[in-house]
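Task card 7
Instruction: Convert sequence to structure tokens.
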Amino acid sequence: MYGIKMLKIKESYLNIFTQTLYWFLFLTTLALISSRVFPHSDALITLKYIGFSLPRYWFIFFCLLLTTQWKRLSTFKKYSLPFIIATSFYYLDFQLNIITKTLNTKDFPSYTLVSANLGEGVELERLEYIIRLYNPDTFVFQESQNLSGFKTFKNYPFKDCKGHLCFISKHEFKMVNFLGNSMFDGYGNWAAFYEVNINNIKVNIANVHLPTVRRAFSNFHNFDAVHSNRVIAAGILNQWASLKENVIIAGDFNMTVTDNLYQRNFTNYQNAITDYGIGFNNTFDYIYRGFSIPGVRVDHILFSGDYNIEKASVLVNLGGDHRPVLSKFTIDNGEE
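Output:
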């Protein structure tokens, strides 16, 4: 009798666990899908931010765990589980772009841009290796010290480093404007805007570092303010880009492509990694006491439709918790 009673208790706990896990995954799925279907809705925003702060592998792990309790699921739950699993792969942010890229048939000179957040420091040997291997035309850095005097950039004569944003280029550029974090009660700059001549075309480039969500978790009283700041910053960028031609927005967006703010503001642009990358391309790692766990893709290079992207990849980290993003591209000046 005792054994039967313990077995019933075990079954009861397993049922409670299974149902709780299912509904948690179901609500998470709704939050993710709602970001894409209803990008202007902030429903389930807290759950979305919690999902942002966790390594992406947890979702597929819990889906697999739930499948081991298949017999405990109702008919509806069994039919909806494949949809939840499919959403977990979308959440993992896996790219499979195997379609042939548009060829540069006019032999326009290619231009290579690298964006990197240097908040946790930089190892100059790794940076020099990237320069030797890829020979970038321009670097845009976020959370950066003033790198203007570094010998690493001896072949980059044009530099602008202010407010923790750096724009370093082989080509002459014009610094047009900047936006300071003082508007969000912070310090430094969160956006800087430049004009560069590429293939006889004026190109508008924004180097950005949007407000982070981490402040919301250090103090939940800041949650509304943090979300409001992110809405304002993304809206300003979208408005700026809509008024310009030949636009590139590069930097640390502090948002993934599944974020409703990204879906609301940036889906009209080519995302170098989303549209041309292959595999898992996380740009931010979770580092704790020396251990590094692959995280999420929050660093992006976005293009308006005027560009032909030839290459896009996430590079090895430069010593911090972010990985640089590289894109090689051309732009058609309309000449035959």
